[in-house]
Amino acid sequence: MLFSDNSAVSCVLNVVLCGAAGFGFYKIGPSEHPYAFTACVFGFCHGLFGLASGLTGDDNAKKIAETTTSIMEIIPLPLVNVELYLAAESNNIALGHGLFIVPLAVSVILTFFKGESGDESEGGPLDTLKTLTILGNITSLAYLAINESSWNLGGMAILAFMAKFGAKFFEEQISEGSGEPVNYLSWSGFYFLTAMAVSGEK
């Protein structure tokens, strides 16, 4: 057998994520919607690196996949929020979402070069900042969903919540290894709905 059942499941999940992000490429124009398009690029790259890691088992591919996992936690959701709030002509709120990305992106880059640090541990200052940023972005997306009466935006808020907190709950409370499918399927659904919402289908 070429790879284990877990690797096979991981590869399938990565293919699904690449497909959903690829659908985003198809529906979202890079010139009209650069922030949402960039979010789709991150999702596609994460799926691609995860697929390479699962198929080859290469240590470098695994390290890159772990880094893109950290990026997925903090960058796509604020980018999509920037796009949505710009479309709603709320430029100040869009700028706020954009500024949230900077310190967290820098921390991911530093972690990649320096390795694990104490601040990265669960409950550490960086983890708390990540959690608050994610919750703030989810709340903002839910507010916009209610304001715009959009089922797509509401679904995106729920899926973003599931990608972070639902996956963690499944991993810790249901069974070990169940968090990854929840995370990947949530992100895949998020990208599909992002493509629909940004292209104007509510």
Automatic annotation (TrEMBL):
Pfam families: DUF4791. Keywords: Membrane, Transmembrane, Transmembrane helix. Coiled coil: none annotated. Signal peptide: none annotated. InterPro entries: DUF4791. It comes from the Eukaryota. The keyword Transmembrane applies. This is IP09927p. It comes from Drosophila melanogaster (Fruit fly).
